[in-house]
Design a protein that fits this description.
Layout: H1 4-25, E1 31-35, H2 41-50, H3 52-55, H4 57-62, H5 73-80, E2 89-93, E3 98-108, H6 118-134, H7 136-139, E4 145-154, H8 163-177, E5 182-187, H9 190-198, E6 202-208, E7 213-214, E8 217-218, E9 228-235
Parallel strand pairs: 4-5
Antiparallel strand pairs: 1-2, 2-3, 3-4, 5-9, 6-9, 7-8
Helix pairs in contact: 1-8
Amino acid sequence: MRSPRAERVRSRIRINWTWTQASKMSESPGYTVAPVLAEDHEEVMKLLKRTFFVDEPLNRTLGIYRSESESCPELEEFCSSSLHEGLSLKAVDGDGRIIAVLINETCPIRRAETSADPKFQKILYILARREEGTRLWEKFPKENKLVEVKVAATDARWRHRGIMNALVMETEKLLKGQGVRLMRLDTSSAYSAKSAERMGFECFYRVRYKDIQMDGQPLVVPELPHEYDCVFVKKLY
């Protein structure tokens, strides 16, 4: 009978082997996919601040972050809290610069979050509506957790090259290797929703932003074509 310590070592070996295989298989013209490391934290956050913080439809509409002279501790914590869980991926160019990142997080099938920031409270209200709308704990009663694609960001100069699709595909391989059955992808962007459908994700929640209201008024209405808030889930096996 193997000791708990031996099992932990074997588990780390399996995970490291998976990352090695993923890196080998993900070499594409101009970039390579690899795991996010602890020393990547500052560079990843800089990438997020010039992309996700300002481009994501809800962040942009609410004006949560307009320039690097401002700060939103809640948004920064939201992005970085699971960055080094061991599931996040980066794309690196030939010069070693991080050009894209996919932050993945293990989370319970049912969750709740709070915030003191008035603007970020609106984001969390929308997230809460997603939970109640999908009711994934009822649709997958035998599961108690899943892995969610929490944040996706690509440098503007590297967009429309299939990098994010490659990161998602490598995440799927990693999760299958770890025995994770469900992968979740929430989309506030119409473009992300189309990508999710193309990659085989099933939509479990879809509602118009104008119908997400508080006190009789729409909470946040991003500019077109970002008309719907959606939750997608993919059964990996």
